[in-house]
UniProtKB/TrEMBL annotation:
It holds the Pfam family 7tm_4. InterPro entries: GPCR_Rhodpsn, GPCR_Rhodpsn_7TM, Olfact_rcpt, OR51/52/56-like. GO terms for molecular function: G protein-coupled receptor activity; olfactory receptor activity. Keywords: Cell membrane, G-protein coupled receptor, Membrane, Olfaction, Receptor, Sensory transduction, Transducer, Transmembrane, Transmembrane helix. PROSITE patterns: G_PROTEIN_RECEP_F1_1, G_PROTEIN_RECEP_F1_2. It comes from Puma concolor (Mountain lion). GO terms for cellular component: plasma membrane. Putative odorant or sperm cell receptor. It is a multi-pass membrane protein. This is Olfactory receptor. The chain crosses the membrane at residues 25-50, 62-80, 142-165, 202-227, 239-262, 274-295. Coiled coil: none annotated.
Length: 316
């Protein structure tokens, strides 16, 4: 027994097995995730090209959308290479510190995405409830400050998690039943008291996701109150139309986030189902976000059409 304990004392390498119970078919599942990643990378890269170069999009909502696009690209880069290597090439081993680094980047980028959605909700609140002061409130310096606060908050709070894992030395296993390094999946490997890790994980989750969701809900309650007080039906519809893309992105992000968060801690969901849904939660929103905003915005649609038409003419 002592030799087993010694063999997992301060392990330098961990093993990611992919999707438990679906190892025989995860090679083919990898193609669907690869396609989702390609759509996400292409769509968000196009947004990052269009928004800085199109003067009419130099507005707070689209500045935040550009930051969201960069965050989504970061999520895909943090998850996809190792996950696809597991699915397609059986490359399951990962250095312990590399696993913690992946854990940090995935959860920090999730936290940043949540914070940017909150900033976008605040932008919609000011634009609809106090339109005359919109440009004076959301100045370029304020926008930069908001983005920095969102990034620093996510990095500092999430940075606590790998530090707390590093204090654990004894592990009963080095096999992670997951396709990427997720906080609780790594913590559950420890053969020591992990109550501090679990508590801190919950606090970080609620401090970021819970706080942001409450304030986004509050902002939209105030927005709807302001919209319903508008006398003209066309004005009400126009105000609602400016919010629909953000509402859709907000709902898809938080519904999937909380399902993944709670099912891993308190639920009795099959491991394969949980891992598939948690991977979908991380990869599908980055693919959908540019599509949702591209469909809703005429300028983005026009510029995307121009990009593809130019490519077609250059090939001919």
């Amino acid at each position: 027994m002592a030799s087993i304990n010694m063999s997992y004392l301060d392990p330098t390498t961990l093993m990611l097995i992919g999707i438990p119970g679906l190892q025989d078919v995860q090679f083919w599942i990898g193609f669907s995730f690869f396609a989702i990643c390609l759509v996400a990378l292409l769509g968000n890269t196009i947004l990052l090209i269009i928004i800085p170069t199109e003067h009419s999009l130099h507005q707070p909502m689209y500045v935040f959308l550009a930051v969201l696009a960069a965050t989504d690209i970061g999520l895909c880069v943090a998850i996809a290479p190792k996950m696809l290597a597991i699915f397609w090439f059986g490359s399951c081993s990962i250095a312990f510190d590399a696993c913690l680094a992946q854990l940090f980047f995935i959860h920090a980028l999730q936290g940043m995405e949540s914070g940017i959605l909150l900033a976008m909700a605040f932008d919609r609140y000011v634009a609809i409830c106090d339109p005359l002061r919109h440009t004076s409130i959301l100045t370029p310096s304020i926008l930069v400050t908001m983005v920095l606060v969102v990034a620093i908050r996510a990095m500092v709070l999430v940075g606590i998690l790998p530090i707390l894992i590093k204090r654990l030395h004894l592990f009963h296993s080095v096999v992670i039943a997951h396709s990427y390094c997720e906080h609780m999946a790594v913590v559950k490997l420890a053969a020591e008291d992990i109550r501090v890790n679990k508590t801190c994980g919950l606090l970080v989750g609620f401090t970021i996701l819970g706080f942001d969701m409450i304030f986004i809900f509050t902002s939209y309650i105030l927005i709807f109150q302001a919209v319903f007080h508008l006398h003209q039906k066309e004005a009400r519809l126009k105000a609602f139309n400016t919010c629909t893309a953000h509402i859709f992105v907000f709902l898809e992000f938080y519904i999937l986030a909380f399902f993944s968060f709670f099912s891993h801690r308190f639920g009795h969901v099959a491991p394969s189902t949980h891992i598939l849904l948690s991977t979908i939660y991380l990869l599908v929103p980055p693919a959908l976000n540019p599509i949702v905003y591209g469909v809703k915005n005429k300028v983005i649609r026009k510029r995307v059409a121009q990009i593809f038409l130019l490519n077609r003419h250059s090939q001919q």
